[in-house]
Amino acid sequence: MTNTGQSDLVVPPSPDGPPTRVLSIASHVVSGYVGNTVATFVMQLLGLEVCSLNTVQFSNHTGYGKWTGTKIPSTEIDALYEGLKNNELADFDMLATGYVPGAEGLEAVGRIAKDLKESGGGESGTRFFWVLDPVMGDSGKLYVSETVIPIYKGLLPLADLITPNQYEVEWLTGIKLTSPADVSNALSKFHADFKTPHIIISSVQSLVNKNEYVCFGSSMTTTGKPRAFSIAVPMLQGPFVGTGDMFASLLVSRFRHAAADAGLLETPNWMSSDSVIATELPLARAAEMVLASMDKVLKKTGIERDKKVKSLDEGDHGNNAQLKRARYMRAAELRLVSCVEEIRSPVVKYTAKEFKNGVLQA
Amino acid sequence: MTNTGQSDLVVPPSPDGPPTRVLSIASHVVSGYVGNTVATFVMQLLGLEVCSLNTVQFSNHTGYGKWTGTKIPSTEIDALYEGLKNNELADFDMLATGYVPGAEGLEAVGRIAKDLKESGGGESGTRFFWVLDPVMGDSGKLYVSETVIPIYKGLLPLADLITPNQYEVEWLTGIKLTSPADVSNALSKFHADFKTPHIIISSVQSLVNKNEYVCFGSSMTTTGKPRAFSIAVPMLQGPFVGTGDMFASLLVSRFRHAAADAGLLETPNWMSSDSVIATELPLARAAEMVLASMDKVLKKTGIERDKKVKSLDEGDHGNNAQLKRARYMRAAELRLVSCVEEIRSPVVKYTAKEFKNGVLQA
After folding, report:
1. Fewest Cβ atoms closer than 10 Å to its Cβ: which of A90, A338, B1, B94?
2. Which fold has domain B21-290+353-360?
3. Which pTM value belongs to this model?
């Protein structure tokens, strides 16, 4: 298949990408979509062999207010990994980690990451790569204990790509994001202080236009300088749940594909040479694909949620505040299984622009 | 979209089917494909909202000889279901159950099935439907305790569709399958003794042609008589693992779609009227689709397994028999994530024939 030069005749790439074996450590809920119930399906749809290690099994996510189920002890995380190693099943190309309950669990994840980093990579011969989503909180609310934060800071230098949200950036860098210049400083700080090769801040409420949000990313140069880009996306009316998990798992898949296309899978940290400009980075290519899928899935979710919410608004919930909360929570669950094509073959609509010296391009 | 009558112009049906919420109770392994790691992905690909309740979390399946992880206690199965009920999340259209470790766990599953049967069905207003895969053993080997068998016999009258293999049929009916007439008797016995509306025996080593295996199915009439069909499929060289789980989860999805196409979802047990002949049953349509996908996935799995096995045969395993066993086991894992299209849009190759009076049609 050749690119004919006519963009409308370009054959779309296979949604499956290169052979990839990924260990995904996150939570599991029986009903609904957060953590591994999002990540597993999304990454499988994009061709990754996903090994899901579930840190909890809950009936539903905690936003419902009530739930049942248990966290697994950190010793069990260690044991499951040992079981994989004993059978030579721990030859992972990638590690993806999301919400981990508590300091001990996070330390167990850190031990696994170190061990995988040392063992070097998977059967495919490509460099081991860790995508760390430092799940700590959102919208001004911390949902892990403060004791977890120094552990995350200790782990950041091991990660190849991190995907903090605005709030998590503020906790990790100490920089409050009130202007594009602040974002620029935070990206520089991650590269400088934690040697983080790749960073994506999935969504910052736009500091320019209130009807959009901006995704920022940067892959550092050999001298540790940022190569930053921004992608502006129209704001969709929330509430949504599990969007951070969907973003991270799409990014794991799309960055793997983009790095393969650029021939970088055997390069340490999949780092592009310094001659590659920000908007040509595999990370920028990947983020564009991720945001294209996000936009489609969230639009579908929003339409169906609003229909449901309308009938809930008209309904009678008696005096049961808990049940009322649960009904609205359920209405907002991601619509994933009806979005197979949107996840596998999205059309890019929002493209990356260079983000230099803290100045956002219109 | 209209059927033009020219078969090469027929627009393929959507792979997604009607809105369906299914509770899938089975085991989970971090690496590889058995139980819910097969069922969840397969059913999601076919448009079902899958709520996966994992009865165990193991590092890998037990065929490797060594594994780590734990079974969840039966009280935890009860608790997770209670958590769903408390949030009105237990409004399932379907229940799919596979391997359940031990008698107490199976009793917990029975309680859930009874409760769902009484509550009647999901939000979509369709009849609740239970697909019970009575996982007890295979190829002459029981892998549950014998105490489980009377519990299964007690649960069969609650199930709408059961999917036993040859060995499980023999345990449940007491009839040894040595001729087509024996199969016919076993199908009749399930309908008569357990009032099971629909039965599929996924694979019986052909009693006629050694190069094929035969899938048998029957949906009973209002008078409890079988309407049986058979589908002969060329034998593929094993070993395979997880095929029973793949068959059952494809069937859950395809029978839902076929029953919807026939307008039967609000009919008790999705039962076709007595005028429908065996080869026109929704169950026959579903089984044809299931076997088409199975054939494609198993062929791909077999080719990649054989390549891997060849290099293992030439390799050195030292004196480590356990590691050798693990390597061959891994080589035989199902190739699922590279088979999205084969699962969503298979082309039917093997069609159902009437199976009457114990006589197999050529």
Report:
1. B1
2. UDP-N-acetylmuramoyl-L-alanine:D-glutamate ligase (3.40.1190)
3. 0.95
